[in-house]
Design a protein that fits this description.
The complex is a heterotrimer of chains A (about 325), B (about 325) and C (about 325). In chain A, about 25% of the residues lie in helices and about 20% in strands. In chain A, strand 7 (about 175-180), helix 6 and strand 8 form a beta-alpha-beta unit. Chain A has helices at about 60-65, 90-100, 115-120, 130-140, 155-170, 185-205, 215-220, 240-245, 250-255, and strands at about 10-25, 30-45, 50-55, 75-80, 85, 100-105, 175-180, 205-210, 225-230, 230-240, 305-310, 315. In chain A, helix 4 (about 130-140) crosses helix 5 (about 155-170). By secondary structure, chain B is mainly alpha-helical. Chain B has a domain at about 90-265: Orthogonal Bundle (MetI-like fold). Chain B contains 13 helices and no strands. Chain B has helices spanning about 1-30, 35-40, 45-55, 60-75, 90-125, 130-140, 145-160, 175-210, 210-220, 225-250, 255-260, 265-275, 280-310. In chain B, helix 5 (about 90-125) crosses helix 8 (about 175-210). Chain C has about 325 residues and is α/β, with parallel strands linked by helices. In chain C, helix 3 packs across helix 4 (about 135-145). Classes of the chains: A alpha/beta (about 325), B mainly alpha (about 325), C alpha/beta (about 325). The interface between A and C is large, with 54 and 51 residues. Chain C: Keywords: ATP-binding, Cell membrane, Membrane, Nucleotide-binding, Transport. Chain C: Its main location: membrane. Chain C: One of its GO terms (molecular function) is ATP hydrolysis activity.
């Protein structure tokens, strides 16, 4: 998708900060903050699929909601199709939101159990023949037109996720935010849904913000990748470049921790110590330094800035030059 | 901890102010004039009336009356009864031990009935035992408790002559007689409270029994009596104790009907007397006292939460 | 982590745990759920035996059945020559946590929130030993050390919510191994954990399996996890084991069509995507309320023939088993 980079960005996030007050003092003033998203910037070009990966508490889901302007950001700006989402008035915001739809992890909770699924889909449509078009959408996502008047509980988890996708497609969005959209599904169903998303992406020219903790899925679906840790971006770059030669120590540890479903080519795991720190009390300086095998005194002093780490790549690490680079897997790489 | 209590106390200030306005204005909006009561029936001497009004400040604008009253209360002066001239605080202090005794006894009755009944109903969910316990509980909730009190009097006093039908004896003067007087009012109030509590205990037990830590307890080989009696019960008791505390706070305000039926000289009875006599000052004093007691009890319940549930941090 | 080669496949007489024709049914108001429909396997001492399958295939029910926590309606479970399926409630409680222990998927909710870590550990120890409170506390602290938790004394006084997910799972493991059981049943032990923590916990389980000489039954849906930790793998579908083989053999030569489909649909993090659509199996598993006659996979199977309408035969050989008409 390199050629699309020549176009204007579809989505631009600049210096986004999202904090939530979690405790207050005697007079009810906030005294403790949860640092969900700290100074995150990213750009998504039309037709592109950008993966956001990271572990729990890294802020990836908060980021999605902040982009949809479901929260008032503590700082920073979100620009979508050239419009500042934060300053859009409610009518404009509704229009902007038609152009960016979200598909969530839980296909059970996302649908109203008392409405037929067709009605949920038709809600997003405008103009005449809404029923016909909703039925067409159902068929497009691999269901039957007759499923229009059935209720959510009559479907399996994978089918419900198809319904959620049809509903998201109804307003003809430019951007689909998939927040762990295939994480709750069994692998065989997960593969079906991923294939469906790939087809839709090609057919509708959709752009994707694909949020997932599953690195294998991200590698197969995304053009570019942004790795987050404790609310901050630690590395970003083209997917294949990052997977074949991760720059940031966290990215290296994260990728190498994934078990490989192939006993003939077992993974080489770099075992990290401890757990992800609490976003209530993030470590000073680089948030990863408490678990980083390369940590040095300098890492505690200031938050490292994103610095170039190869072609269209950057990473936030003070010791980038000292980190051993190279592929994580050798023998299995590139063979299939 | 201290910070939490401070903040809670700070939050109470506006609550109590609004409450005082409500208490004050309600009493004054109700038809009926205390001066009429003071002067006695048939007396209409306008001079006496004016003197009485001036004496009790009833000739002042209502706003002035309110602030005078509030100022006195803040200095600990609840005023005097319009009728008996006794200081209201003394009257309340006189009646409060009776109410406190009844509240304790009723709470014990309620706990002794509801916790075992709720546990059994939860353990044998859907069985006859469960239906029986829930049926009785529903009956207990729907039947007014004064009716149950009257039934008790009919049975134990009139028919069997076992228990005195009315009156109160301070517990430490004569524990045996005091207990005999206490049994029926405590049963009346306690069973009413037990009806609600049984349903709560049952629901909490069922909720907790489906939690995953219960499976862990079984998987490590804990016998069922430990799984239920310790693991489940300890969790189910957290909300239960909260409700018991709040209901106990309610009992401390005085049980108007029950105290009246059994001629129990508690706060509830005092309130009833005050209303009959249109004793504005006393009504205000009693209602405000009851509200203060309830607010204090709910604060204590909140603090006790800290000790019951380790997940709750008060800050 | 790949120790498959070092372990001999079990002979019947050396197995620490044998399961024969296990049938479990949950009776609901209207229908019965046929969760497990005849599961048979042997567990060798010190091996990791994985049961994989997708949600609803009955793998977790098998796990709970091994501890007698399900309504077993048929079959036999023998642990160290003791017939668990014939034991009464009290007798079974003495085996649980003692000879066979279990850890669960959700470390967040699997510990009692209002009891300290120490209380819960000490309880597990004292239920099955004659240790006094003091000795049990010392043993509990030692167990925390062995699962890699420093500052054990402080940990014992903490409540579960004061620990991270990974730490809670370590506590669960310490609790499960505190009485040195012959068998540890691990039901999706890392599914709720972050991937970097998952790697720690899997390594820990494997290390302790060696140290304690415990055999592990690992229940998981994660094909990557089984590839790296299991000696042998059973693939479950619709309440039955459809294929069983040593790990390397299963991945090199999957025989049952379901196993093949399952392995093919797993995305690979270590491979450059080829840009082709991922291989998929159409449809989904049948309802466990009403299982079809014959092979339950036949509606989704590209090899299905008329034969598949009757129960497929079991073929055993070369240390592996497959239940399919293709290998008649």
């Amino acid at each position: 998708m390199n050629e699309s980079n020549l176009n204007a960005p579809l989505l631009e996030v600049e210096g986004l900060v999202q904090r939530f007050a979690v405790a207050s003092d005697v007079l009810g003033r906030p005294s403790q903050w949860l640092h969900a998203v700290e100074d995150v910037s990213l750009t998504l070009y039309p037709g592109e699929s950008l993966g956001i990966v990271g572990e729990s508490g890294c802020g990836k889901s908060t980021l999605a909601r902040a982009i949809l302007h479901l929260y008032e950001p503590s700082a920073g700006r979100v620009t979508f199709m050239g419009r500042d989402v934060g300053s859009a008035r409610s009518a404009d915001l509704r229009a902007l939101r038609r152009d960016m739809q979200i598909v969530l992890q839980d296909p059970f909770g996302a649908l109203n159990p008392r409405r037929i699924v067709g009605a949920s889909i038709a809600d997003g449509l405008k103009g005449p023949d809404r029923r016909k078009r909703a039925e067409a959408l159902l068929e497009r996502v691999g269901l039957k037109a007759a499923d229009y008047s059935r209720y959510p509980h009559e479907f399996s988890g994978g089918q419900r996720q198809r319904i959620c996708i049809a509903r998201a497609l109804a307003p003809e969005p430019k951007l689909l935010i998939a927040d762990e959209a295939v994480s709750a599904l069994d692998v065989s169903v997960q593969a079906q849904i991923l294939n469906l998303l790939s087809e839709l992406r090609a057919d509708f020219g959709l752009s994707f913000l694909f949020i997932s903790h599953n690195l294998a899925v991200v590698r197969s679906f995304c053009d570019r990748l942004t790795v987050m840790y404790l609310g901050r971006v630690v590395e970003t770059g083209p997917t294949e470049a990052v997977f074949s030669d991760p720059a940031h120590p966290y990215t290296r540890a994260l990728i190498s921790a994934v078990p490989i479903p192939d006993p003939a080519h077992p993974g080489q795991h770099t075992l990290l110590e401890g757990d992800v720190p609490s976003p209530l009390t993030p470590p000073s300086g680089c948030a990863f330094r408490t678990r980083c095998p390369h940590a040095a005194p300098i890492c505690a002093q200031s938050v490292p800035a994103m610095t170039p780490a190869g072609d269209r790549r950057s990473a936030a690490c003070a010791r980038l030059d000292d980190v051993m680079r190279g592929p994580i897997w050798d023998s299995a790489e590139g063979t299939k | 901890m201290l910070k939490f209590i401070l903040r809670r106390l700070l939050q109470l200030v506006p609550v109590l102010l609004i409450l005082s306005v409500l208490v004050f204005s309600l009493v004054h909006l109700v038809p009926g004039d205390p001066v009429d009561v003071l002067m006695g029936e048939g007396h209409t001497d306008p001079v006496v009336e004016a003197v009485l009004r001036a004496k009790y400040g009833l000739d002042q604008p209502i706003v002035v009356q309110y602030f005078t009253w509030l100022g006195n209360i803040l200095t600990g002066d609840f005023g005097s009864s319009l009728y008996t001239k006794e200081p209201i605080l003394d009257m309340i202090a006189d009646r409060f031990p009776a109410t406190l005794l009844l509240a304790f006894a009723s709470a014990i009755v309620a706990i002794v009935i509801s916790i075992p009944a709720g546990i059994v109903a939860a353990l044998y969910r859907g069985s006859l035992l469960d239906f029986g316990a829930m049926g009785i509980a529903l009956f207990g909730i729907s039947v007014p408790n004064f009716w149950f009190g009257i039934l008790l009097i009919l049975f134990f006093s009139q028919m069997l002559g076992l228990l005195p039908s009315m009156g109160y004896v301070p517990f430490f003067e004569d524990p045996w007689t005091a207990t005999k007087h206490l049994i029926m009012p405590a049963l009346t109030l306690g069973t009413a409270m037990a009806a609600n509590l049984t349903r709560l205990v049952r629901a909490e037990m069922i909720e907790q029994m489906s939690q995953e830590y219960v499976r862990t307890a079984r998987a490590k080989g804990a016998p069922e009596r430990i799984v239920i009696g310790l693991h489940v019960l300890k969790n189910a008791m957290i909300p239960t104790v909260t409700i018991i505390g709040l209901q106990f706070g309610g009992l401390l305000e005085g049980a108007v009907l029950t105290e009246t039926i059994f001629a129990w000289p508690g706060i509830g009875k005092l309130a009833v007397t005050a209303v009959y006599e249109r004793d504005y000052a006393l009504i205000q004093g009693v209602v405000l006292f009851a509200a203060l007691v309830y607010v204090a009890v709910s604060l204590l319940v909140d603090i006790s939460y800290r000790f019951l549930d380790p997940r709750v941090k008060l800050n | 982590m790949n120790t498959a080669a070092e372990i001999e496949l079990p002979e019947n007489d050396t197995a620490v745990l044998t399961v024969r024709d296990l049938v479990v049914r949950y009776d609901m108001d209207e229908a019965s759920i046929h969760a497990v429909n005849g599961v048979t396997f042997d567990l060798a001492p010190r091996e990791t035996y994985a049961i994989v399958g997708e949600s609803g295939c009955g793998k977790s029910t098998v796990a709970l059945s091994l501890l007698g926590l399900t309504p077993i309606v048929g079959g036999e479970i023998v642990l160290d020559s003791a017939r668990l399926t014939e034991m009464g409630r009290a007798e079974m409680a003495r085996v649980r946590g003692h000879k066979i222990a279990m850890i669960f998927q959700e470390p967040m909710t699997s510990l009692n929130p209002v009891l300290t870590v120490g209380y819960q550990l000490i309880e597990a120890i004292r239920l099955h030993t004659s240790m006094g409170k003091r000795a049990a506390r010392e043993h509990a602290a030692k167990m925390l050390g062995r699962v890699g938790m420093s500052d054990a004394e402080r940990r014992l006084r903490q409540y579960p919510h004061e620990l991270s997910g990974g730490m809670r799972q370590r506590v669960m493991i310490a609790m499960a191994l505190s009485c040195n059981p012959a068998v540890l049943v691990a039901d999706e032990p890392t599914t709720a954990l972050d991937v970097t923590v998952q790697a720690q916990i899997l390594a820990l389980i494997d290390q302790l399996r060696e140290e304690f000489g415990t055999a592990v039954v690992l229940i998981t849906h994660d094909i990557g996890v089984v590839a790296e930790t299991a000696n042998r793998i059973a693939v479950m579908y619709a309440g039955r084991i459809v294929e069983e083989a040593p790990t390397a053999a299963l991945f090199a030569d999957p025989r049952h069509p379901y196993t093949r489909g399952l392995l093919a649909s797993v995305p690979r993090v270590d491979r450059v995507p080829d840009g082709q659509p991922m291989p998929t199996m159409e449809g989904s598993a049948p309802s466990m309320r009403q299982l079809p006659e014959g092979c339950p996979f036949r509606a989704r199977c590209s090899h299905s023939t008329e034969k598949c309408e009757t129960d497929p035969p079991v073929r055993v050989g070369e240390g592996r088993m497959v239940r399919c008409w293709l290998y008649e």
